[in-house]
Design brief:
The protein is an all-alpha fold. The protein has ten helices and no strands.
C-alpha cells in the first residue's frame, strides 16, 4: 500500500539529490522518504534505506510535521552525564598536574584513585569502568610511565648498576 504525503515541496528525485549531500543517518532518512514518495510502503522503504519499520513511521511523521529540517535534527533523549563538564575539567587538571605524596598520599594516579577523588570531593560514586570511560572522554590514557619515588636518589642508582654489571 502506497504512503500518502501532505507535503509536496520535494519530489523523490530531489530528495535523493539532497541525500547525496548528507551523511550517515540523515542520508538514510532522506532516502527512506524518497522511497515512500516513489510509492513504497513503510516496511519496504525502511528496509531499502537500512532502517527499521518503526523508525519509518516515526520519520514519516516528523517529515510531515517539520519537513526536511526535521529529518536533519534529532534531539538526544538520553540521560545527562553524572560528571558535568566543569567537574570533568577539574579532574583532568588535577590528573595532568600529577599526584602529590603529601596531598593524595600516592605517587601516581590510577583510575581507582580518580574514583576516590570523585567520591570524596564531589560526592559522585562511579564504577571503575565509568571512571575509565570518563578518562577516555577527557583524552587521558591509563598508560603512563612508571612513577619515580620522590625519595629516590639517581646517583645511588647509577652506583648500584655499576656494582652489578655481569658483562
Amino acid at each position: 500500500m502506497a504512503v500518502f504525503f501532505f507535503r509536496t515541496e520535494y519530489s523523490a528525485r530531489q530528495l535523493r539529490q539532497l541525500a547525496k549531500q548528507e551523511k550517515g543517518r540523515v542520508m538514510q532518512r532522506f532516502l527512506m522518504i524518497a522511497n515512500m514518495l516513489d510509492g513504497m510502503d513503510h516496511d519496504t522503504a525502511a528496509h531499502a534505506a537500512g532502517l527499521g519499520r518503526t523508525s519509518a513511521y516515526k520519520w514519516h511523521n516528523i517529515y510531515e510535521e517539520e519537513g526536511i529540517d526535521g529529518l536533519r535534527h534529532s534531539g538526544y533523549s538520553g540521560r545527562d552525564r553524572r560528571v558535568s563538564d566543569e567537574i570533568a575539567q577539574k579532574i583532568k587538571e588535577r590528573v595532568v598536574a600529577g599526584a602529590s605524596l603529601e596531598q593524595d598520599n600516592i605517587i601516581a594516579f590510577r583510575a581507582h584513585d580518580v574514583r576516590k577523588i570523585l567520591k570524596n570531593d564531589y560526592d559522585i560514586d562511579l564504577s571503575l569502568s565509568s571512571v575509565y570511560r570518563l578518562l577516555h572522554r577527557l583524552k587521558l590514557s591509563w598508560l603512563v610511565p612508571r612513577p619515580q619515588h620522590p625519595g629516590s636518589d639517581a646517583q645511588a642508582q647509577q652506583q648500584f648498576r655499576k656494582l652489578f654489571t655481569y658483562n
